[in-house]
Please model this.
Amino acid sequence: MHELAAGIVGLPNAGKSTLFNSLVHGTAAVAPYPFCTIEPNVGVVPIPDPRLLALAKLVQPEKVTPATVRFIDIAGLVKNASRGEGLGNQFLAHIREVEAIVHVIRGFASGEVAHVYATLDPVRDAEIVETELLLADLETVRRREEKLERQAKSRDPKVLQEKEWTERLVAHLSAGRPARTFPLETELEQEWLRGLFLLSAKPMIYVFNLSEGEWIQLSQGSEVSPLYRDFCRWVEARPDRIPVVPVAAALEETLSGFSPEEARQLREAMGLPSERSSGLERLLQAVLTALDLITFYTVKGVETRAWLVRRGTKAPQAAGEIHSDMERGFIRAEVVTVDELLHAGGFAAARERGLVRSEGRDYQVRDGDVILFRFAA
Model:
């Protein structure tokens, strides 16, 4: 599996680059005017993983490597982006390259950072961006439909079947429904959808960007922003039930400039959770959940490392994430859970207790597995 990529999208001045900076401790340009970001910023973010840290403490390797997510800060979309408005076609092309979409919704008022549509309306803003994704998808599917129309003259049953399916997909998108909610009944239909690379088929996570004060009130459970409450109700009424992660991106960006201990002290002073960023960590976990990813670990040699694979991945393919030779020469996987390994005190002790299982080619890797792959070089 190539490195997981998530694209940060939203209207101009929603806080996309600020969120990006808080995630990667970066220096993406941030300014109170639209289209500050033209070329996408790219940063790699390690996934916080207490299990990996516990393994490292036990094994004491020379190197500890967490799983990562690559975030791409894509410039703001505006109404009619699908027709090229605001450099829209260029930006939509960047979205096609990612596995998941992080949609930043502006929920904060500011006299210094103008809203591109003058008024604060999170539901309207979300609908503008998602309409542009749908319109771009409709153009893609209609081009495919036109090609199938020409091919259908041959009366090939496979072509006619795909043509009928494509017509249903056009009707679904035309009704304002994203491709991710389009029912797929067969593996062939799944293959057709994957081949279209539709924007609205990608998993999406909403990041609701609050002001510092509203974020503190929400974290303390004292008060919920009416805009945030109403937005969550709107999301709950949708068929795709997109997860909503509240953050205060400007606050997180500020805290990212301090050492971990200084940031912890500042959080405590504000009455916030002391971890690096509860909002940002929830965002990372939401991305993994949306893509149905699990984590397995390797502790062989000088490195202890976390790996991401899709749920249901079999052992040989998981080995291939480490090196293609390991997949080709796969013999077996020796597997123990993180909890069992930590309790036993090491791989040798776990083996002596009969906790290490020998699994073959059909074994589906589970979240929290620690695996030693045996393969023929």
